[in-house]
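Before we proceed, please read the two lines closing this message. Report back on whether the structure tokens fit the sequence:
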Amino acid sequence: MDIAKQKRRENIAEYILYLWQLEDLLRALQFSPEAIYSTLIAPRRDIAEEQKHLFLMWYLDLASLLRQEGKEEKGHLEHTLHLIQDLHDLHLQLMKLPVGAHYRTTYARLEAELPRLRQVLGNPGMSDTELCFRALYAAMLYRIKGEGGKSAVTDTIEYISPAVGELAAMHGKVERGEIDLFKSDEGR
């Protein structure tokens, strides 16, 4: 809850990947309130005892959403998929507006890798932005499993991370009103 709020404020990409990781963790804990509490809440010393029930309720709300959306076994919450669509919409704007010049240069390094990623991850109808998030999440899982040194994983991080990082940074700036997409003299 606290980590998610902070990530949402600071970096939308990290927030999405964090929620995806929580989805998988909740599934691994079989949505059990006892397992969630003992694994995710009880060990934390930074949460006051009287606040722990709020954290449990937040995790249970996520579990409930996964169930409501029929994603008990796999898939991602509509909330995160909508955020990715928002990022993709921003991506499309940055690809054509003057304020996106630097982003276009960063994205150009990734673009040649997209067909290979699409072939590996499937789903030809997926937006490039969602494809990048799915690839980053897969790379993150490989790293967790101790297989992060594989060339496919390091290539994914090398090409995708800069573009997604810049897209997330631009999203934050737009959201905070620090830049106007339609003015070329702001934002950098």
Notes: The chain has nine helices and no strands.
